[in-house]
């Protein structure tokens, strides 16, 4: 099939109207649609495809680009697994545009809020945003069984990207959406990355420009005590610990694939985020590679890529031919540029990639960056 990149400017689709109800968990919203807007027409085309076909649509979020399909139809969800070549025991995250839509998935009863109280402070602070919460799946769930991969729970989040929210609202259904890449590859933070991986496998990529955060959402489980983080991401452990009921949140993931078990959340079981070239990760405390170290790993005549962050000098001061990318010293800039840098070095055909790690002991988004790098790396120095 032919894959179209459809550019959409969020300022040209309409005027957002917020409705605040006192005591409500989150306010509802509506939109006064722009007239004769080609940007809106692109979103309407994508929404119609989500409603009427089993071919997924790629769309931007604030974290990475997602590959979305109607979370209530098995045939549509299977289209995600087919396009990504994703293992079917790896659960998907359900994206919603409103609290009302989420409550509908939980089968509310009169006078009872089906969203567990433990999540209320997180939703109030971090939604819309890069946080996924694990929720109990009702016995009569409308979600396709492929979404949860046999689990009795599902992950849900409300993205901060206006384009994502409007697409979900137009489609009228929750969207199951992992990252819009081929499984194991670096996550896509630009529409071009999606095109590189999925050209000919899907029909529509909504191009909303580069992603703001650059790493996936944090996944948390508050259904057991103490609550746990199943995947680090755009919300840090320190931020979580500032919320009532989350002071004792623990790390429930590993920085390596957890083979042999049913993953409770995406990103836990399988190798992820890997470019074609092998990655050699230098932890923040180990200095920089020497010529001898590079030759030990690569041999003569290899094409070498280097990703620098805080302290390595240009090309590490080495008298060898290489491709050098500097992500800057700010943690946020490293997060935004990491996956793009790995993909760029792959495009340049390097044989090996050396990466300068960053300090992840401060409890911020650096934890997510290093988690992704450790899962991508073949060797950690």
Give a written overview of the molecule.
This is Threonylcarbamoyl-AMP synthase. It catalyses: L-threonine + hydrogencarbonate + ATP = L-threonylcarbamoyladenylate + diphosphate + H2O. InterPro entries: DHBP_synth_RibB-like_a/b_dom (IPR017945), Sua5-like_dom (IPR006070), Sua5/YwlC_C (IPR038385), Sua5_C (IPR005145), T(6)A37_SUA5 (IPR010923), TC-AMP_synthase_SUA5 (IPR050156). It comes from Lepidopterella palustris CBS 459.81. The structure is a single chain. This protein has helices at residues 38-52, 74-84, 99-105, 120-126, 145-148, 162-171, 191-198, 237-241, 291-298, 331-347, 366-376, and strands at residues 4-7, 14-19, 28-33, 57-59, 66-70, 93-95, 131-136, 153-157, 175-176, 204-207, 218-221, 228-231, 250-251, 279-282, 304-308, 322-326, 352-356, 379-380. With 381 residues, the protein is α/β, with parallel strands linked by helices. The chain folds into 2 domains: 4-251, DHBP synthase (Alpha-Beta Complex), CATH 3.90.870; 279-380, Rossmann fold. The strands form 4 sheets. The protein has a 9-stranded mixed β-sheet, sandwiched between helices. A hairpin with a 6-residue loop joins strand 11 and strand 12. Helix 1 crosses helix 6. The radius of gyration is 21 Å and the shape is globular. The relative contact order is 0.15.
């Amino acid at each position: 099939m032919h894959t179209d990149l459809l550019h959409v400017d969020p300022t040209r689709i309409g005027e957002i109207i917020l409705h605040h109800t006192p005591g409500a968990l989150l306010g509802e919203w509506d939109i006064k649609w722009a007239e004769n807007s080609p940007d809106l027409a692109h979103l309407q085309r994508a929404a119609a495809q989500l409603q009427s076909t089993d071919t997924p649509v790629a769309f931007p979020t604030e974290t990475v680009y997602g590959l979305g399909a109607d979370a209530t139809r098995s045939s549509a969800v299977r289209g995600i697994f087919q396009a990504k070549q994703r293992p079917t025991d790896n659960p998907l995250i359900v994206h919603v545009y409103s609290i009302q839509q989420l409550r509908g998935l939980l089968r509310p009863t009169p006078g009872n809020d089906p969203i567990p109280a433990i999540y209320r402070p997180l939703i109030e602070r971090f939604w819309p945003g890069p946080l996924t919460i694990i929720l109990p799946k009702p016995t009569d769930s409308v979600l396709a069984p492929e979404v949860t991969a046999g689990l009795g729970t599902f992950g849900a989040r409300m993205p901060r990207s206006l384009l994502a929210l409007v697409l979900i609202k137009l489609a009228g259904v929750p969207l199951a959406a992992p990252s819009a890449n081929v499984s194991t590859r670096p996550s896509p933070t630009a529409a071009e990355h999606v095109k590189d991986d999925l050209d000919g496998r899907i029909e529509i990529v909504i191009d909303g420009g580069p992603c703001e955060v650059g790493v996936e959402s944090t996944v948390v489980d508050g259904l057991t005590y103490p609550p746990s983080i199943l995947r680090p991401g755009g919300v840090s452990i320190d931020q979580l610990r500032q919320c009532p009921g989350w002071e004792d949140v623990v790390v429930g993931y590993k920085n390596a694939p957890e083979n042999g078990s049913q993953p409770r959340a995406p990103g836990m079981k399988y190798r992820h985020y890997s470019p074609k070239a092998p990655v050699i990760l230098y932890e923040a405390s180990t200095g920089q590679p020497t010529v001898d170290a590079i030759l030990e790993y690569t041999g003569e005549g290899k094409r070498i890529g280097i990703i620098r962050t805080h302290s390595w000098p240009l090309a590490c001061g080495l008298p060898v031919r290489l491709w050098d990318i500097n992500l800057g010293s700010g943690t946020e800039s490293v997060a935004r540029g990491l996956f793009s840098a790995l993909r760029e070095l792959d495009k340049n055909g390097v044989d090996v990639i050396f990466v300068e790690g960053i300090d992840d002991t401060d409890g911020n988004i650096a934890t997510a960056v290093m988690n992704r790098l450790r899962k991508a790396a073949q060797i950690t120095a």
